[in-house]
Amino acid sequence: MSYEGRIGIYVDAVNVTMNGGYGLRYDVLRKFAVRCGGCASRMNVYVSYEEDRLQNDQEYRRKTMRFCEMLRDFEYKVTEKPVTTFMNHETGEKISKSTIDMDMAVDMIVHSDYLAKMILVTSSGSYVSVVNAVQNKGCKVELIGFNNVSGVLKKSVDSFVSGYMIPGLLPVDSPYPWGETGSRVRGVCYDFSLNEGYGFMRFLTKFEDRLWVTDSRDTESPFKTVFAHISQFEEDIEPSLLPSRDLIFEFDLVENDKGLVAERIELVSR
């Protein structure tokens, strides 16, 4: 296979978990990464852990080991590093530090020699220089993040996708599959009229490479649009914030006399 079809996945696991990505399904991530064809040539997850706690807390040890074993079952390479804790003698403060981000950065730069595209999963702006370096070597970078994603990092990558928007990547409490009538999905309010009190929600329906085709009227678009009335938004949402591409909402897809509409609209990320 030529370099054109080779894709790499790089997940900053603790950062993702601490910033909205708890419960991330790594099998779905792999499918999304190769949605345009090609092969997941390198799949890497970077895990930092508290060494003392690993030795003394059996439940923590069990969960950590189980998590790493699950990742390896999905054919991810897992890099594990302990968190180092040291004392600031001037302030008396304990400071924890892991070098796991350095391992991830080095791997990305080395692997970029034979990859066409990288999927970077993190919210940390510390990877901006790494992104620039691999792009200069001809490798595209797609960023997936949840909460607190660095604005500078978003601007540095070739494309950004909110992990909340990817069908099945995180658990959703729904009796029906994502996108079906009666199901609960996540999306953005891309159009809204304050005077009229209504707008439209957009959500992703399938894994496609044409994420830039956001107009759901286009037959090549992987998105779908539904009507949303202000009365269906949670009470504390400020209408002046709408429309927004940054606010992620979760909502029910309900069929009524007007067609498919969004109901019980709740903010999940800003």
Q: In terms of quaternary structure, what is this?
A: single chain
Helix/strand class: alpha/beta
Please state the average pLDDT score.
91
The SSE order reads EHHEHHEEEHEHEHEEEEEE
Specify the overall morphology: globular
Q: Helical residue percent?
A: 10-25%
SS strand fraction: 35-45%
CATH superfamily placement of the largest domain? 5'-nuclease
Radius of gyration: 20 Å
Strand order of the largest sheet: 3-2-1-6-7-8
Topology record:
Elements: E1 6-12, H1 13-18, H2 26-33, E2 39-49, H3 51-56, H4 58-73, E3 77-82, E4 84-88, E5 93-97, H5 100-111, E6 117-121, H6 128-136, E7 140-145, H7 151-156, E8 159-162, E9 184-193, E10 198-204, E11 223-229, E12 244-256, E13 259-269
Parallel strand pairs: 1-2, 1-6, 2-3, 6-7, 7-8, 11-13
Antiparallel strand pairs: 4-5, 9-10, 9-12, 10-11, 12-13
Protein model, in words:
With 270 residues, this protein is of the alpha/beta class. Helix content is 23%, strand content 36%. It has 2 domains: 3-163, Rossmann fold; 184-269, OB fold (Dihydrolipoamide Acetyltransferase, E2P) (Beta Barrel). The mean pLDDT is 91.
Keywords:
5-stranded mixed β-barrel, OB fold (Dihydrolipoamide Acetyltransferase, E2P), 13 strands, 6-stranded parallel β-sheet, 2 domains, Rossmann fold, 270 residues, alpha/beta
